[in-house]
């Protein structure tokens, strides 16, 4: 397996930065509607995403992810979608589910688990595309 | 007969003088460039930030956020230490090359030792870090070259060959170094900014602060901390630009390596030298 290139690692790190910012924006936009537990959970997820992004930058050329080039493209796509619209998401539970999905994806990437990345990414897409109740 | 011999000697002296004159000028150009480059590259040591420092700051920020008071800070920074190790190895190689170039252009023997670099690259010291093949090859070429420069009677006339053989690996290493400092390390600071923003925006949303004084103080603290981070980002950016200029200038030297004895080379190099000097000055101002 080849290493992730510097450019790919930097782009991936960017994604975690934007996802984390989106989580914060979502939390601020819905502050009054969220319970204290939800706020704490989202806060922890947000800071975990920041840590993932920082770790990826430090790892930079050392990530071994040749099998997930396709996944990287999908991560870029979903990051853009979430970044553009999560702030205006009216369904709080969906926001919380998506946040958890992102957290799992991040953990799989840091663990360099190609299978885990694929399945968690699929789950995240399903959560994001799920119809609003 | 005597008169004719003297005339010939005089003629040879007259013919030889311009060659000597131009050679001096142009070796001085290489010497000036390499000396400025060494100063520019060594500014890396003035950067008061590293991957490890970022990790330690992160742990402190997290402890503050969670209000965690422990006897010993529990902070796993292993991957950040590895990142610093790789950066140091690349830095030492680039610095060693330019010091060698400087000494050669002043007709001095080089005494650069490659042992540390090669050991670092061949051992498991760097843990799981895998340096890509292109960079390893660059290290290898450069180290061999430096080793020969320190043992052979490598003198002024070999300067051309030295530049020729070093150009490709030095371009690879400087590019890598630039990405590490100018993108990865600088990129870490963006996360630091976001963490700072999150901390203060939560404070605001939680209505933690009641008095106008507390609110004003918190706002002032936030912007001061933000400015310090942005200043550090700028410093890394300027450093990265300066090493990029050093690489471009080396490329010009390489492309004109057969004309080192032609006066024009100093004209080609002057803009680069001036740019590098300006960036060094800008860096020093930011670093004050």
Give an overview in words.
Chain A is mainly alpha-helical and 133 residues long. Chain A has helices spanning 6-29, 36-59, 69-85, 92-110, 114-129. Chain A has one domain. Chain B has 288 residues and is an all-alpha fold. Chain B starts with a helix and ends with a helix. The interface between A and B is medium-sized, with 25 and 31 residues.
Task: Please outline the helices and strands.
The complex is a heterodimer of chains A (133) and B (288).
Chain A: H1 6-29, H2 36-59, H3 69-85, H4 92-110, H5 114-129
Chain B: H1 2-42, H2 51-66, H3 78-105, H4 115-122, H5 133-151, H6 159-205, H7 212-255, H8 264-287
Helix pairs in contact in B: 1-3, 1-7, 1-8, 2-3, 2-6, 3-4, 3-5, 3-6, 5-6, 6-7, 7-8
Largest sheet of chain A: none
Q: Would you identify the regions of chain B where 5 or more consecutive residues have pLDDT less than 50?
A: 1-25, 109-120, 122-130, 150-155
Query: How many whole angstroms does the radius of gyration of chain A measure?
Result: 14 Å
Give the number of domains of chain A.
Answer: 1
> What is the number of E strands of chain B?
0
The arrangement of helices and strands of chain A along the chain is HHHHH
What labels describe this entry?
heterodimer; A: mainly alpha; globular; B: 288 residues; 8 helices
């Amino acid at each position: 397996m080849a290493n992730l290139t510097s450019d790919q690692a930097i782009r991936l790190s960017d994604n975690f930065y934007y996802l984390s910012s989106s989580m914060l924006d979502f939390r601020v936009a819905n502050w009054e509607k969220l319970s204290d537990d939800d706020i704490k959970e989202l806060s922890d997820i947000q800071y975990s995403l920041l840590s993932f992004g920082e770790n990826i930058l430090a790892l930079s050329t050392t990530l071994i992810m040749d099998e997930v080039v396709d996944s990287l493209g999908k991560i870029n796509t979903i990051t853009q979608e979430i970044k553009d619209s999560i702030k205006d998401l009216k369904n709080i539970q969906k926001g919380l589910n998506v946040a958890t999905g992102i957290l799992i994806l991040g953990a799989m990437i840091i663990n360099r688990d190609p299978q885990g990345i694929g399945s968690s990414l699929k789950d995240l897409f399903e959560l994001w595309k799920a119809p609003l109740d | 007969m005597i008169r004719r011999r003297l005339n010939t000697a005089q003629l040879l002296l007259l013919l030889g003088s311009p060659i000597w004159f131009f050679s001096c000028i142009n070796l001085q150009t290489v010497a000036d460039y390499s000396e400025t480059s060494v100063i520019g590259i060594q500014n890396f040591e003035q950067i008061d930030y590293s991957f490890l420092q970022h990790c330690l700051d992160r742990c402190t920020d997290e402890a503050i956020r969670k209000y965690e008071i422990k006897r010993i800070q529990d902070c796993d920074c292993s991957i950040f230490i590895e990142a610093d190790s790789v950066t140091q190895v690349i830095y030492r190689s680039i610095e060693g090359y330019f010091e060698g170039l400087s000494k050669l252009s002043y007709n001095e023997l080089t005494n650069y030792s490659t042992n540390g670099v090669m050991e670092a690259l061949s051992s498991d010291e760097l843990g799981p870090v895998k340096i890509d093949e292109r960079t390893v090859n660059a290290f290898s070429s450069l180290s061999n070259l430096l080793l020969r420069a320190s043992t052979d009677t490598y003198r002024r006339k070999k300067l051309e060959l030295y530049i020729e053989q070093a150009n490709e690996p030095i371009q690879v290493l400087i590019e890598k170094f630039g990405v590490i400092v100018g993108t990865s390390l600088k990129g870490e600071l963006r996360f630091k900014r976001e963490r700072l923003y999150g901390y203060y925006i939560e404070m605001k949303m939680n209505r933690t602060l009641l008095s106008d004084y507390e609110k004003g103080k918190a706002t002032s603290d936030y912007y001061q901390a933000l400015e310090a981070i942005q200043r550090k980002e700028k410093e890394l950016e300027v450093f990265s630009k300066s090493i990029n200029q050093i690489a471009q200038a080396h490329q010009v030297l390489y492309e004109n390596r057969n004309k080192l004895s032609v006066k024009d080379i100093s004209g080609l190099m002057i803009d680069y030298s001036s740019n590098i000097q300006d960036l060094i000055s800008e860096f020093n101002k930011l670093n004050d």
